[in-house]
Write a structure and sequence with these properties.
The protein has 124 residues and is mostly helical.
Length: 124
């Protein structure tokens, strides 16, 4: 009886620890991607302010450097259209940074997509 309680407590503790690790990982990734978006905006001559750190709202400064209307953020909430919209947005951001729009293909290559944002943010 007591061994069952210890086993359940250990399982719950391991599950909680795993959940905390996953949450920490995703928070760190989100903060890093927001920092990359901030650097991209700065390199394009736009000061993003605090908008870049707010979920979904961080697309507003990105839309401005991509020279797209702000109302197109609504397309982010339409299934399947949102994928095309994000590809289009990232291609226009690449062009605004002076890179080829075809660089967006990196988003579809495993592990290369992890270096796409840092490349745009930290390259000259």
């Amino acid at each position: 009886m007591q061994n069952d309680n210890i086993a359940h407590a250990a399982g719950a503790l391991i599950g909680f620890g795993l959940l905390m690790f996953i949450l920490f990982f995703f928070l760190a990734y989100y903060l890093f991607s927001c920092f990359c978006y901030k650097r991209i905006c700065e390199k394009c001559g736009k000061e993003p302010g605090v908008l870049i750190w707010i979920p979904f709202v961080h697309f507003i400064p990105l839309l401005e450097i991509a020279q797209m209307p702000v109302w197109t953020i609504i397309l982010l909430f339409v299934p399947l259209v949102n994928v095309v919209w994000l590809i289009w947005l990232m291609a226009k951001i690449c062009i605004a940074r002076g890179k080829s729009g075809w660089l967006v293909i990196m988003l579809f290559i495993p592990f290369a997509n992890l270096i796409f944002l840092p490349y745009l943010a930290f390259s000259e």
